[in-house]
Every structure is written in structure tokens, then in C-alpha cells.
Amino acid sequence: MNELLVTAAIGIAFGWTLERAGLGDPPKLSGQFYLRDFTVLKVMMSALVTAMLGAFWLGRLGLVDTGRFYVPETFLLPQLVGGLVFGLGFVLSGLCPGTSCVALASGRGEGGATVLGLLAGMATVGLAFPSLEGFYGATPMGAMTLPHLTGLSYGAVVAVVTVSCIGLLAAIGQWEARR
Amino acid sequence: MSATRRMGLGALALGLLAPFVGEPRRAVSGALDFDAIARAIDDGADHVSARQLASWIRARKPGLRVLDVRDAKAFAEDAIPTAENLTIDRLVGAVFKPGETVVLYSQEGAHAGQAWVLLKALGVADAVFVPGGLADWWEEVMSPVLPADMPVAERETAADLSRYFGGFPQVGLVVSGGAPAPAPTPYRRRGC
Q: Where are the domains of chain B?
């Protein structure tokens, strides 16, 4: 029960932040794909750096046990195909699963339509699962992490990712100021 | 300087410092509690019989996770229902939720026993293995020979469990001389 309350609180905070960042607005989201609006990229990059630095430093200070983090397993081919399908839906509807709930909560019709489509898609895949199962489990690569893959230390990966993200954010900032 | 710029520079500093402070502490990994392992082996808390596993699967025991540590080819040929295939090398990177009961099995048990020690070293508290592996599953669940002198209720429960998984339970007949009927050839394969 307690776990559910914590989950609900985190969910509400997440939705509120997404809405505040302007991600409940489909034209803004699809603007990313046409390189008109970089809000999505900026939100993603800053969230990624914040979460990564938080996980690394809290782990280093012994406040959280990074060994207990859940690392989703990589299934290369199905995830590539899934990503393409996801991206297509994203640019068509201007919303992703999280932001569609946010859009619905703020009373947008597009949000409701996307949530319905999402549920219908999940039901379809669930029903067709027996014939998809072979593909679903294809090319398993286990729980992959960048330190594992590159052979670099965890700290070095953190530095490389931070510098690339902050560099990209600064470049976007300058480009927007010039426009 | 704007707040955004200050936060960016702060993040940059934390990121650039990261390579020089070492790895985050992992509280559980690599610590072997020898006494606890020895105790578990002594009192049998390290393993579970194939029949017990079958009743757990049928009862949909909450948090039950059955892991087949054999290779993908062997897994595709024959496996315990609800099992997932996780070879020993992938076991090390796997993540186990608290409250999960992990049951390991292999062809005949040796590899599962080794995997069990590995999981203990990784700090997985609730893990057991099937001593006779898949061979036990076939002997005890799929084609069990139930002694004729077994109490009827107990025999029916075991037979029922076997049928649930599509097995063929047999009752060992007591022939007039008192000698039980010959048991069917047990299912054993080489290797583990």
C-alpha cells in the first residue's frame, strides 16, 4: 500500500513536470521532428543528465545501492522495430504514452484519442502475442550498460555523457537565441 | 549569470569529477555469507523437489520465478512450464526484485546448484534449485510411478498434479508375489 502511495506521488509529480515543460502540447512535440521546436530534446537531455548524476553521486556517497537498479534487457531487433513504430506514432499523434495521459488530464481531445489508441494497440499485441513471441524474444543481449559495452569505467561514461548533453544543450540555446 | 547557466555549469562540474572518484558502492555484490550458505545446504533450504515446484506453479505462488540455466537450444526443446531461459553468464547481470522466489534448474541439477551459489554471492536471498533438474521433473511430475501402498488421498493429489501438467501418472501395481511392477525406463540424458 505504502509503495502504491509513493508510486502515485511520483506519477503526479512526473505528470505535473511534463505539463509544466509544455509537453502536453502535440504541435510542440511534433515540432521536434521537423526541427522547429527543441523542447523535447531539451527536456530529455536535462532529465537524463540530472538522473544520471543523481544516480552516480548518490551511489558513490552510499545513499542508494546502484546494484539494485533495474536495468531492462536489450533485445536488439525487436526494440529497433518497436522504436520505429513508436516514433511513427509519436510524430503522427504528437504525443507519447506519458504525454498523452498528461494531455488527457489537461482536457485535450488529442490526449484521449491517443490513450484509446494506446490501449487498443496493447490489446492487439496481447492477443497476437502467440504469433509474435518468436520475434519478441529475438536477439537477446541481456542487461547491457554503456560501461559494460565500452569497457570504460562508470565515472568516465558519466563524464562523456554529461559533456555531450550539456554541449548539445548549449548549442541549442545559442541557435535559439540567434533565431 | 542565469539560473539555467549555473545549473548547466554545476552539472558539467559534477560530470567531469565523476571519473576521478571511483565506482559507486555496491552493497550486496560479491559478499559471500559462508555460514548462511553452509546452513542452507545442511538443512536443505537450498533446494526444492520437482513435485513441490509443480504445486507452486499450479498455485501461481506470488513472486515465483523459474529460471532454466541451460542453453537456448536445450530450452527450446523441452522446459518446465512458466520457466524463462537465463544462462549462467546472463544470470550475473540479471536483476532480482525483493520478494521474488527464484527456482533454478538445469538438465540434471549440477549447473543449477552452481548457479545457486552464484545467486547467493550476488545477494539474492530467496533462491532454491531443483536437485535432479529437468530429469526429476519428468520422473516426479510428468510420469511418476506412485507406490500402491501410498495413502489414497496423497496418491490422488500427486496424480492430479501430474495430469495438470499433461503427465501420465502410474500406480505401481502390487503383483500377487508382492513385487512391484517394473518401473518405466527413467528419463535421463547425459550431461547437465
A: 34-137, 144-172
Cβ <8 Å between A170 and B8: yes
Mapped to the 3 state alphabet, what secondary structure does chain B carry? CCHHHHHHHHHHHHHHHHHHCCCCCCCCCCCCCHHHHHHHHHCCCCECCHHHHHHHHHCCCCCEEEEECCCHHHHHHCCCCCCEECCHHHHCCCCCCCCCEEEEECCCCHHHHHHHHHHHHCCCCCEEECCCHHHHHHHHHHCCEEECCCCHHHHHHHHHHHHHCCCCCEEECECCCCCECCCCCCCCCCCC
Q: Which of A65, A154, A173 sits opposite B23 (nearest CB)?
A: A154
Ranges of chain B whose pLDDT falls below 50: 27, 29, 175-179, 190-192
Nearest to A67 among B19, B21, B27 (CB): B27
Domain count for chain A, please give it.
1
List the single best residue of B20, B21, B25 to mutate versus A (max A Cβ within 10 A): B25
| ipTM of the predicted assembly exceeds 0.95 | no
Residues of A in contact with B68 (CB under 8 A): none
CATH superfamily to which B34-137 belongs:
Rhodanese-like domain (3.40.250.10)
B25 Cα to chain A: minimum distance (Å)? 6
pLDDT along chain A (179 residues), means of 10: 89 92 88 91 93 93 79 90 94 92 92 94 94 88 83 91 95 90
**Which residue on chain A is closest to B14 by alpha carbon?**
A53
Residue A168 structural domain? 2-178
Whole-angstrom distance, CA of residue A23 vs CA of residue A94 = 10
Chain A: closest CA distance from residue B50 (Å): 27
Chain A interface includes B28 (CB < 8 A): yes
